[in-house]
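Reminder to self: tokens first, then the designed residues, so the page reads top to bottom the way the pipeline ran.
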């Protein structure tokens, strides 16, 4: 899987699984805490997962979570597939930057710094702060039902932009990343990706989006996904070409972001169907990558359910939230922080002393050290 200078096969080599040895140590420690085995429910599972992700026998509390929203407009929105007007993602971004969107409010309430990355908004780049638009690839993405959404050069640029954002966040010390999107037409692109990856029909994955479109809009959306599928199936085995054909710049960047986060051993919380669709493509590129992700919440979108089932990811929450824009994933952050804090701070009884032979065997175990920072390209 090589396109230009970008070799996707590198991700399969660079991405390791979280440490099974430290996970076992965390599970054994949990047994010595004294609470009944099922008393903390999924919090126990999360705590052991964080120990494995962090490479520690005892998990550390989450101290530096960050939320990243990739923003873009999709040409297919001009076909009436969304309740919002084509090109309307810019208004959503402005509300987020002004602190008045649901995601901005929740980010403040949960003490999670929020970052917006404009990859392909349909507005002049100088209308937004330079920091927001510095990774922009193009203005809007092409109509996935009749044309490629990106050129090959733009596809690679968008993918690398997502990787660069992941590196920036990891270098800043983030220990948990929330991934969301701000888009109009994004769930249509996501529907195509899920359908082609899962080998199913358009009607099975077509949902009503965050704004709950009416029946006529749903039929238009289903038709657009069907047409996009015809274009996506011939390039299913070439993930970069697939992304360029139907995903648009924002979803392509999110896929690169997810893979590079896994390279950097940084856990990610997925939001809705858009981030789940990108995760499904990333899984096809590197099968170990989903071990670094959590699913934040159920959205009711059929495409999300199929994607998460394919990756064996079980959502943490089900509150009926369909807003998108990272809202559901942000809602899950307090639960995730609670699980990590419990794993870190609940006192355990001393471990029985091991004999010398056992200690020698433990010392001889190969440690699963964090992957060195690597340039996958």
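Designed residues (377 positions):
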């Amino acid at each position: 899987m090589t396109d230009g200078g970008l070799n996707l096969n590198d991700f399969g080599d660079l991405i390791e699984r979280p440490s099974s040895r430290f996970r076992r140590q965390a599970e054994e420690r949990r047994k010595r805490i004294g609470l009944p085995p099922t008393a903390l429910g999924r919090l126990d599972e999360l705590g052991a997962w964080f120990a494995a992700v962090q490479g520690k026998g005892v998990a550390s509390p989450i101290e530096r979570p960050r939320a990243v929203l990739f923003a873009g407009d999709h040409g297919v929105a001009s076909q009436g597939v969304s309740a919002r007007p084509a090109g309307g993602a810019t208004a959503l971004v402005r509300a987020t930057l002004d602190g008045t969107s649901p995601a901005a409010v929740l980010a403040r309430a949960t003490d999670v710094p929020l970052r917006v990355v404009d990859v392909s908004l349909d507005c002049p780049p100088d209308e937004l702060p330079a920091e927001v638009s510095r990774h922009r690839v193009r203005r809007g993405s092409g109509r996935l039902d009749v044309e490629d959404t990106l050129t090959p050069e733009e596809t690679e640029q968008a993918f690398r932009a997502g990787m660069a954002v992941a590196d920036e966040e990891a270098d800043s010390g983030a220990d948990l990343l929330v991934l969301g999107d701000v888009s109009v037409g994004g769930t249509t692109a996501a529907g195509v990706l899920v359908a082609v990856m899962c080998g199913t029909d358009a009607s099975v994955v077509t949902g009503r989006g965050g704004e709950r479109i009416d029946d006529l809009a749903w039929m238009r959306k289903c038709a657009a996904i069907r047409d996009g599928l015809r274009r996506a199936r011939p390039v299913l085995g070439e993930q970069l070409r697939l992304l360029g054909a139907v995903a648009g710049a924002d979803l392509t960047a999110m896929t690169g972001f997810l893979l590079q986060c896994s390279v950097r051993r940084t856990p990610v919380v997925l939001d809705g169907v858009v981030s789940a669709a990108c995760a499904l493509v990333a899984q096809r590129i590197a099968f170990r990558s989903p071990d670094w992700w959590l699913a934040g919440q159920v959205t009711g979108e059929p495409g999300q359910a199929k994607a998460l089932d394919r990756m064996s990811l079980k959502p943490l929450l089900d509150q009926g939230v369909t807003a998108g824009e990272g809202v559901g994933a942000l809602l899950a952050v307090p639960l995730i922080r609670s699980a990590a804090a419990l794993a870190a701070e609940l006192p355990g009884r001393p471990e029985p002393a091991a004999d010398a032979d056992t200690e020698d065997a433990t010392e001889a175990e190969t440690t699963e050290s964090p992957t060195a920072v690597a340039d996958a390209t």
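Confidence is low (pLDDT under 50) at residues 354-377.
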